[in-house]
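Both lines are quoted verbatim for reference:

——
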Amino acid sequence: MKNCRRKGNRVITGEVVIINSDLMSPKKRFGTKKYGTTLILHKSDETTTSSIQEAMRVAFEEKAVNMFGNTDTELKFEEFISPLKTHSTNEDIYYLRTMSREKPEVIDKQKTPLDKKTSICDGALARVSMTFDCANIAAEQKKIIYAILDNVQILDNNNHLRDIELKKHRYSALEDFDDDCEVYEEVFAEKDFAEESA
């Protein structure tokens, strides 16, 4: 297994799982076409997660002060929204979205460039290089740290999501089709209330 590497605000991950990949053609997001992918990381992978956190802090220290100039209020790292987020259904998992306006180079395990017609599987095993930067979204009064996608190496273009438990509870058929299930009673109660209020 390849180790994660960091230089300043740039990180090259070890093996990670990627999903929702737009690597061969860009997808329009917030009015702009961008390439991108989402990394799924185990919090137990301390080498990768700590490297990402250190790179984010470097981005803050090197970029934020220049961006905001001399201000009366001291900038704090914690004020910036991080791209590294805990998964909503599994607290042991981080996810991170990285995007770029420029097309990343995408190679395979043998370092051969992949054809642009290649379909990247959701759950593919990969290594990803990215650079962290800061931005001030004045209109929304938000300060953010974000990850710029550089390049991707696909190590195994098969679904490895089965190795990551993204859902802590798998509902059984008996639960789904039990008319007395409390979950569904609550849903119907809300629906009835909405109809009465209309």
Summary: DSSP finds three helices and nine strands in the chain. The two ends are 59 Å apart (CA to CA). The longest helix spans residues 46-68. The first strand starts at residue 5 and ends at 7.
